[in-house]
Amino acid sequence: MPDTFVVNDFIEHLDQKEKEFSSMSNYVDRNSIKKKIDILNRVLNFLLASNINTDLSEKDIVKFYKKVSANKNYMSLKEHIYFNAVKNQRLTCYEEIFENSFINKEFCFKVFLSQVNKQSGVYFIPCDSGKCEELKEELGLIVIGTDFCFDDFYEDKKIVGKVISKEMNGIEVCQHPCNSMIIVDPYIFKPGKGRVDKTPNIIRMIKAFMSEKLSVKFHLLILTEDPINYHLDYLDYQSKINKILQELGGPEKILIEVYTSTTMHFDDRIILTNYANINIGHPYDRDTYLNCVIFFADTDEINIRNNYSEYLKLHNLIKNNIQKNIFRTAENETNRLFSY
Length: 340
Known about the structure:
By secondary structure, the chain is an alpha/beta fold. It has helices at 8-24, 31-49, 58-71, 77-87, 95-98, 105-115, 129-139, 199-207, 234-247, 301-321, and strands spanning 3-6, 51-54, 91-93, 122-124, 142-144, 159-164, 180-184, 218-224, 254-260, 269-273, 276-280, 288-294, 324-328.
């Protein structure tokens, strides 16, 4: 199941907005709030599909569970979300970290992040939207505040057959906060069509996802075929990787690992981020197409679980195909997407 951290204040906000939107639909043209209702339902279904980490105490959660069990009915979205999480054993309480959140909410959230490794988690936190935008850029994570307006929940990031140029124009349609990337491409360092060096376009693609304000090191792992298969020497690989490293800020800004594999059998090139599975046809030296799925960007609870299951399956397949390391910028670090 996907992971989310959600403060009770956000659940209260969700509850309030659901009542507000329902009442508005009786007096105004329903189309004017249709999108907000759709976004609210997307958020609700994501929470119902997720492992939930909350700032509430276990005592409070038990109280909700007993109340709903006795009534056999949900009186609010809050009761629905918490009851569902407890019933399916998908709820963890972190009350002790957030006891003093009134002093510094952002600090409490960062303490939580330091203790709980949820690199593909979505975070509904006790901060306003302005602060959340800063944290998205700084942390490379999806962070949503308690004043969320239900205008956008990455629903436009499910993309099929988008054409992008060899210079990667068009890749921006997939942009979302992230701090890690895995690229699977057996030919990434092989000279391109017409012997073109693909490295500048590879750099453009990575920059589209790597925030300039990121306060943590961006992690990049490339899985490719051994250069000996193309009669290339390691010096050529090293030169191209060093160019990527320097263009993206050097070892202080980015961790780069390059592995080879003789067992890869992928039809398309694959890019995984904290939240997305992107398939690209033949990039960097010709116009091509891409498909993108952000695993929580769906209207249906079951689809969200299936999207996440496919994401994890691909993640594990890549992990199991890693064989020989030919380059890394730090010996004591590994891509954070492989830390769970």
